[in-house]
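Standup notes
- DV: blocked on the single-chain target, sequence here:
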Amino acid sequence: MAAAAYGISLQDVRAAQQRIGDQLDATPCLHSRTLSRLTATQLYIKFENLQFTGSFKERGALNRLLQIPPAERARGVCAMSAGNHGQAVAYHAHRLGIPATIVMPRHTPFVKVEHTRAHGANVILAGDSLEEAFAHAQQLTAAQGLIFIHPYDDPAVIAGAGTVALEMLATAPNLDLLLVPIGGGGLISGIAIAAKALSPAIEIYGVQTRTHPSMVAALQGREGVFRGDTIAEGIAVKAAGKLTREIVRELVRDIVLVGENDLECAIALLLNVEKTVAEGAGAAALAALLCEPERFRGRQIGLVLSGGNIDPRLLASVIMRELVRQQRIVTLRIPILDQPGVLARISQIVGEQGGNILDVFHRRLSLNLPVKSATLELSFEARDAPHAQAIIAAIRAAGFEPTILPP
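- DV (later): unblocked, structure below
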C-alpha cells in the first residue's frame, strides 16, 4: 500500500487500537434515519464528541504518549493546540504521570482553555494564530528539553486517529464513502490509511472551510490565502502537515469547501435531530452534505463528528441565528402614527395569530420621519416560516406596512 511508504500502515493502526483499546471507549457509530432522509443518503455518524475530552484527539495523543519510554517521561511533554489536542494530551499525560505544557493561541475559546487546565496541564496562551503558538511551543520544547507531541504530523498520532475507521467499518462494513474534517490532516490521513486497506473501493472526502483551505492549497503547491474568521477554529490551520499532505494526495478523492452558514446549519441540525452538540469543526462533514447534496445523493456515507467542544455562548448564538434563518424569529420595522393604542393594536394582532412578541423598540426621534410619526421595531417568535408569513399578512391587512429586517 502506498501509505506504507510514509511509515504508517494498517498494521500500525491495528497496533494503536490494541495499545489504546483498554484506555479509551469505542464511540458509537449510528445510522441516522432522519438525516439520511434529509440528505437522500444512508448516513452513519461516528460520535467522537462523546470521548471524555470531547474529541477524537485522544486517540492519537494517547497512542503517542504510550510510546514514550518510561525513563523519558519525567522530562515532560509539550503540545500546541487550539483546544482539542491540548485537552487530550493534558488528560492522558496526567493519567500517565507525565508533566504537560500546552501552548494555545490567545483567541482560543475559554471553555477549551479551562478544560485543558482542569486536566492538570500548564497552559500558556501565546500568539494570535496556531502558527505563532506553534513557534512558541517549539521554543519551550528546546529550552526545557521537553518532548513535543505534534497535533497531526506524527506517525503515532496519525495511526491513533486511524482507529476511528476501524470502528466505523466494523459497525457499518458497507460504507462506500467517508466524510472527514481536515485541519492539519492527521485524522483523515489515519482514516484513509485504515479504510482504504480494509475496503480499497471506498472513497474518502475531506472537508475544509472556505476561509482556511490549507490542505487544498498545499496539494496545489501554493501558499493558502485565508480570509476572515471561522466558527470551525479546530480546523482553521494555515499550514497543512508535510506528512499528511502526501497521504491525502495519495488516498483522498477530493476536498469539499464549506461556508460559515453551512457550518452553523449543521451544528443546529445535529442538535435538533441527533440531540448532540458539535463544535464547528465537528459539524464540518455534515456541512459538506448540506453544501453539495447532489454529489453525495444515494451513497452509503460514514460521517465523522470529530468533536463537541463549543463555547456555550457561541452555541447559543448559533441556535438563535438558525431560528432567524428559519423565520421562527422575525424582526419587523413598521411605520406608525405616534398616538395611543397603535402599539397595543399591533401586539393584539400578533397575539391573535399565535405569535409571541420577544422585543419591541419604539423609535420616535428619527429625523427621517414626520414629527407625528414613529417607527416600531418588533421581534416575534413563530412556529415556522408559513406561520410567520401569516402573522405579517395579518399586520398588513390591518393597514400597516411592515418590512422584514434582514438577519
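- Follow-up: The CA atoms of residues 210 and 257 lie 5 Å apart.
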